[in-house]
Amino acid sequence: SHAPADEPEVHDADHYGAAIDRRPVVIGVMDFRFVGGSMGSVMGEQICAGIEAAVEDRSPFVLISASGGARLQEGVFSLLQMAKTAAARRLLADAGLPFISVMTYPTSGGVQASIASLGDVIIAERGAMIGFAGRRVIRDTIAQELPEDFQTDSFALQHGLIDRVAKREELRDELAELLSFFVEVR
Predict the structure, then answer these.
(1) Which of 4, 51, 150, 163 has its CA at 20 to 30 Å from residue 120's CA atom?
(2) CB 110 within 8 A of CB 79
(3) Any bridge partners for residue 152, and if so which?
């Protein structure tokens, strides 16, 4: 690792087997501290591996997104991850397993336009910024002012882009409640 001894090693994304309220899940977590949480080929592989692990274990998949979008430095390989992760998501549907997407600040660009928006249930963290392009880019492109709450969790909820909003300290309980509908205690 190249991280100093007193700092944790940072990865763009990882997946873990876990349990929430004694219900098994596989959790994928993006780390915004690593290149802005941008989705490149490694992150795409990690998300797909997490989905495959969930299918193998017959467990729900939970993805916690924190991303500025596709990793443009990787060119087309980064953009391909949008389709690749969306196709992998289909494995969960085919297996009858739920996919819960949690959007944090920010969830944007190619991640928002693909895997993060494909959950059976989508929860936004209170205060999340959710959108494809940045506010300024959109405003300048359409030459119009945008609503004050544009790209906020409340805007996304009001317009049907997400299903629920929860404070970070409430996420575990929100996930436990949702999982109780889908999976037995093991």
Answers:
(1) 150
(2) yes
(3) 129
Q: Where residue 160 sits, what CATH number does that domain have?
A: 3.90.226.10
- Per residue in 45-103, pLDDT (tens digit) is 999 999 999 999 999 999 999 999 999 899 999 999 999 999 999 999 999 999 999 99
Count of the separate structural domains present in the chain: 1
The pTM for the full model equals 0.90
> Does residue 44 come out as left (phi exceeding 0), alpha (psi in the -120 to 50 range) or beta?
alpha
Instruction: List, as one string, the DSSP characters of 108-127.
Output: EHHHHTTGGG--SEEEEETT
- Direct distance between the N- and C-terminal alpha carbons of the chain, in angstroms, rounded to an integer: 36
Query: Could you give the 3-state DSSP secondary structure of residue 4?
Result: coil
Confirm whether 124 is domain-assigned. Answer: yes
Residue 6 inside a domain? The answer is no
Measure the CA–CA gap between 71 and 48, rounded to whole angstroms: 17
Indicate whether 183 belongs to any domain. no
